[in-house]
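Researcher: Here's the sequence for the chain we discussed earlier.
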Amino acid sequence: MSWEKELSQRLLRVIPLSEKHIKYVKEAEQPEEELLTRKVLLSLAKKVCEKREPVKLREIMDDLYDPVTKREMDVVRLLIKKTLIPSGIVEKLYIGKKDVRYLLTAYRFQETRKVESSSGQVIRKPVGAVIEIPREHFPIPSEVLQLLMCKTSLDCVLNRIDEDFGRGKISETLYQTMRTEYEKLMEDVCERLKEHNELVKLLGLDH
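Model: Thanks. This is the structure I predict for it:
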């Protein structure tokens, strides 16, 4: 099973978190102050990005510790169970009867606080900017990366064709033939990229 489509959808989500839970995803001002919960979260994100699928606890542990002890594994398992899952940041998945894995519910989070509206209703109001998992851990679908690389290459080819024609290196007939051929390829690539338009814009790759 390919998880790329599911991961792509999770990249687009913004999960609201309370003041209590937002600290799990916030970067500490000093590295030594980094919470274990965030270290676990980043290791999970890193391994999911590498494998492009939900990962086992052992895979998270291997990124955190060397060597891994049973006590450390029990601590991290309990931490995920008591903090990251109840807060809605991490999801526990049962892939098989004895195959338990973990996945981030989203990669972007918004702190919210309860406030009372003018009508007396209690609502949650966004506070501050959206907080992201570091983008080097974003599991960007391979198809998106391939299409973007193809688009860049075609741009270079079309520019080169224009330059060669302008310098008289190729005839007008060959120029028109090549322009038509590569423009058609570019149209096909751009059409396929439309399926991922929201993600491409989010990542700032739509230039």
